[in-house]
Specification:
InterPro entries: Integrase_cat-core, Retrovirus_Pol_polyprotein, RNaseH-like_sf, RNaseH_sf. It comes from Lygus hesperus (Western plant bug). There is one protein chain. The chain is an alpha/beta fold. It is built from eight helices and five strands. α6 (134-154) packs across α7. It is globular.
């Protein structure tokens, strides 16, 4: 382990963009008590692209801090519903979906009806108050830094970010969270590697 730390500490690209441990601010409470009880969602973008996916929809399970991310062509309700359908058919419906108050797709009748018809409640941060959805804002930045690291390591352009996304998500899901003393993967799936 010490050898790996020395190698990454000497790597210029790693020191510039590598994801760091995330320490929760004092006074922040973990709202969810089990996986998929509550998820937060937000868009990041527009991002540089050459494959017609200028946006990234990020979804984070608030209990485990396990991130999911989907490249999107636009910020529409249809794109959100498509991503939700993909995620929820695999993991089941969350009890709550929290978004910021600025995302019109999240506030749309289509998305709200989609969630309510499946028994999922919604909540929103106040408009122009991104701190109200701080965990997802932090994850958007962390995912982009991990994507940038993967791109630089492979010598790829920023416009090829969709190719680096799976590797970036894997690295984030494997990082130790100091607030929980577990990786997001361990908390989500109750599996600890020995």
């Amino acid at each position: 382990m010490k050898y790996l730390r020395r190698i990454t500490a000497a790597c210029q690209i790693c020191t510039e963009v590598k994801p760091r441990f995330y320490k929760m601010p004092v006074g922040t409470l973990i709202k969810a008590t089990k996986p998929f009880e509550r998820v937060s969602v937000d868009f990041k973008g527009p991002l540089p692209t050459n494959d017609s996916y200028p946006y990234l929809l990020t979804i984070v399970d608030e209990f485990s801090r396990f991130p999911f991310a989907y490249p999107c062509k636009d910020l529409s309700a249809a794109s959100v519903i498509k991503c939700f359908t993909d995620l929820f058919t695999t993991f089941g419906m969350p009890a709550f979906v929290h978004s910021d108050g600025r995302g019109t797709a999240f506030l749309s009748r289509e998305v709200t009806s989609f969630l309510y018809s499946r028994g999922t409640a919604t909540s929103h941060s106040s408009p122009y108050n991104p701190q109200g959805n701080g965990q997802i804002e932090t994850y958007n930045d962390t995912i982009w830094k991990a994507v940038t690291l993967a791109l630089k390591t492979k010598g790829l352009k920023n416009t090829q970010w969709t190719a680096a996304l799976p590797e970036a998500l894997h690295s984030i899901r494997s990082l130790l969270c100091t607030a929980t003393n577990c990786t997001p993967h361990e908390r989500m799936f109750h599996h600890i590697r020995h």
